[in-house]
Amino acid sequence: VTQVNAAYSPGRRAGYYIRSYGSGFSDDAWRRKTYVIQPNSKINRTYRILFYPIYPKVKKGSVIYTVIKPEKIKANKKKDGEPFDSNKFVEKLTTKITGLATLYILLKQVK
Question: Which of 12, 50, 11, 54 lies closest to 32, judged by CA?
Answer without folding.
Answer: 54
